[in-house]
Records
---
Amino acid sequence: MVRTIFIQRMVLFFKCNLECNPPMQSLKILIIEDELITANAIQETLENAGHQITACVRNLREALVAVKGQPPDLALVDITLEGSADNGITIAKQLLTLHPMPIIYLTAHSESPMVLSAKETRPAAYLLKPFRHKELAIQIELAYYNHQAHQEDTIDPHNAGILDRKSTRLN
């Protein structure tokens, strides 16, 4: 009985944490996923976290149309896309030439060659399926935050100077 109550409270806590604590910022997210059930689960998770899904697409052509029509803040990409001539890594490379943004891979593949190939796109994260809903929401927020911080450091010479002075003190 005590264990049941504990489990019920934990479920309520995690559900409330995901739904009651809005993200730092509502993001526009493109989902590239060929499995409809998985795409729907991802979309529901991200919408519950306060984000907007710009599109759920299955191939390069659909992804290009989606990015041109409504540029996302971030793309969540499956690597193996059944029925697509291109894999998710190839699609991510194409999208990045059109619209720079953080890429998060969400895939079932953990083999070294696949990870090495994905590294070429400098992904913000590489998550394995099956995914955990809370972890996905957190990784998306961190990826976007880090992308924005990097953009500010690159653009603002004052921030770069501060970083240089800090690194000098540490050495």
Note: The helical segments are 2-20, 36-48, 60-69, 88-98, 112-119, 133-155, 157-170.
---
Amino acid sequence: MSENEKDKKTKAEKTMDSKNYTDVLINGKIYTLGGAEEESYLQQVASYINEKMSGLQRQPGFQRQSDDYKSVMTYLNLADDYFKERQYAARLENENQNLEKETYSLKHELVSTQMKLEAVLKDLEERQRELRRQMKELMLRIPEREEALAVSETAREAEPEQSGDQNSLEG
């Protein structure tokens, strides 16, 4: 064996070492499957194929068909499942995109509403400050008004005396 053959074999062996191998039973026959996937996954795949084949074998007249026909029908059923799953995945992807758009729209609406709320709160604070300022101003005027009211009341009390004086002068 030459060095090149040893190198090639070593690379092939390395490649084989990275694969997982397992024996599976498909349609009553044992097959050795290898792949990068876990053994449990490979067993799942074999189980799925067995279920498909078993389902087809329960169909009336299927057993009387040729092996080629049985194989083609199995392939067609597997392909049918595959394409249905692709359509389902495409629908889910489309649904996901629509939900992402809706989420974006709702987030945008939330931010907009928060900005409006902040503006309203700021306006409210400004109005409250203005009301407090006006209240202070009014509170400062109270003593003036009370004094003016007291003067006014004193003037009214003095008026009837003056009115009485005028009545007596007229009479």
Note: The chain has a mean pLDDT of 87.
---
Amino acid sequence: MSKKSTIKLVIAILAVGLAAWAIIPVFIDREVSESAPEQATVLTTAPAVEESSESEVTEEEQGETPTPQPEERVGRFQGRNNYDAEGSVKLVEDASGKRFVRFEDNFKSDNGPDLIVYIGTADNRGTSLGALKGNIGAQNYELPDDLDLSTVDTVRVFCSSFNADFTIATL
């Protein structure tokens, strides 16, 4: 075999291996069934605080103004870029104060290579929480202690290999 033929063979083998690495995960589901963190409670948004004016508000006036209620930080996944996805996600806190992104039992998404979970905004991927543990089922991703949750409103599964969002949930 000539040197040129050997090089072509090596390139062909590498191309087939790369194609298999990118395509095979699409056909293999990885199911996860993690328990929710112990004594987990759903996190809520902080109610909007109105700045007080210099004049005092009477008790009667104060009673007429509805108090803003906090909203639970929950969302539903929707597929993006021709990928299918569904299921619920929420932000929770356990008894020790650790915070998590919780994908519920009903989570299901197309699979792919290099899927990463992010928390951020609609315009910014934000903070990586690590590799997607499975494309089906309940799973938890611990949030960094220094992450300001008032600055994030989106959880997404992003494919690094294809530079594409697979699914996004607005909280």
Note: The chain has a mean pLDDT of 87.
---
Amino acid sequence: MISLKPQGLVKLKKDLALAKLMDFTDLVNFDDDPRPFREKITAIEKRLELLPMRELEYDHAFHGGVYLRTMIAPKGTMISSYIYRKPHHCIISKVKASYRSEQSSQRIEAPYRFQADSGSKRLIYCETDLVWTTIIKTDATTPEDAEKDIYLTSYEAWDNECCANIIEVGG
């Protein structure tokens, strides 16, 4: 007769809970989900917050009011981007990935380049190692100041900032 020690049972429950959190098979049906993109990506982000975070490698360059931010991520990384305040260019020089944004849902493979509008946010699953460079206008000269200038962390912040200049007429 084999008996499980309580510690083994606790570890098994933790392992099962972690496996369930790391199961992103719902991404396969992401496009068929009738909910708006914002709801779908927010639900995935909440699950990602419960998982161990991986430190990614970044390279920063500033010149003439332009910021180049290169992100390097290993295979198997799930990335949910900030919301961009400004339009920008992206150059992907290494990756095979599943890519989702409000505008498109596709598999991308390097080399790949695209333009993104202000208010954009994306979800990327790296099937291979990734090298991704974002090129964006800013007067900042440090990564910390650039992040404050170009990123927002929530749709609520975007809605507040985006709609702050709208004046209601009539009544």
Note: Confidence is low (pLDDT under 50) at residues 1-13.
